Amino acid sequence: MLLCHSAAVKYTGTNIKLPKREEIGITIVTHWWKPKFQTLASREAALRSLDFMFGWFANPIVHGDYPKVMRSLVGYYTEDAPASSNAVNHSWTTDRLVTASTTNKNGTLIGAATDLDWLFVYPKGIRETLLYIKEKYNNPYIYITENGYAYGYNASVPIQEARKDSARIRYHHDHLWYLLKAIKDGVKVKGYYAWSFWDDFEWDAGYTMFLLH
How big, in percent rounded to 5, are the helix, strand and coil portions of the chain? Predict the structure, then answer.
């Protein structure tokens, strides 16, 4: 993705004259992680998760290199392992040395569950993510290219009831409220795009989820 982005920027720079003040950006997907415990180990684990998802792409673009923790933990890719060493299945999820599947603490969920097993409603997270990007990546202009709430298809729910869509209304209300707080904190947010009816049919849960507003 970084190589494609670089090629597009170079092509635009030599072949297309952009209007004044126009900029080229990149879309990076990320989650927000919270430390399960207020310990140094938990806080470092949360930051590693961010580096291994968001920083993997943002760091080279803004700072010119991969995050230091990735350089440190993924060094085996350039080393010859002894023939007698035990085989280990390395992957993005194991390299970061994080147990990131925990969604509750002492029986309390981090936020309301949705019908997607990886998506929990935690509006504060959008502000925390934006402040993190502001501080670590030189306060760039930010366009949130997708954010949304999904629920499972249920043919037994009457259309008039489904149209009320109170859970999704609350979802966007709360996220936009924290987004406004981030803007007041100096984050340069320029756009917010919600999931539309046609979003996400091509991956994950396909047509089994409703994203309609």
Answer: 45, 10, 45
Cα four-point dihedral sign 104, 126, 115, 56:
negative
Q: Model pTM? A: 0.81
User: Could you tell me where the DSSP H helices lie in 21-98?
Assistant: 40-50, 56-63, 68-73, 92-95
Q: How far is CA 9 from the centre of its chain?
A: 23
Dihedral angle sign, alpha carbons of residues 85, 88, 91, 93: negative
Q: Strands 112-113 and 141-147, how do they pair?
A: unpaired
Read off the pLDDT of each residue in 57-81 and give the average, rounded to a whole number.
Answer: 80
Helix axes 166-184, 124-136, angle to 10 degrees: 30
How many CB atoms neighbour CB 95 within 10 A? Answer: 16
Alpha carbons 83 and 71: distance in angstroms, whole number: 24
Beta bridge partners of 209: 152
CA gap 121, 166 in Å, rounded: 14
Q: Within its chain, how far is the Cα of 40 from the centroid?
A: 23
Type of residue found at 3: L
Going by the DSSP 8-state scheme, the letter that residue 110 receives in this structure is: S
Above 80 in pLDDT, residue 80? no
Collapsing DSSP to helix, strand or coil, 212 comes out as coil
What pLDDT is recorded for position 118? 76
Average pLDDT across the chain, whole number: 81
33: exposed, middle or buried (C-beta count within 10 Å: 0-12, 13-18, 19+)?
buried
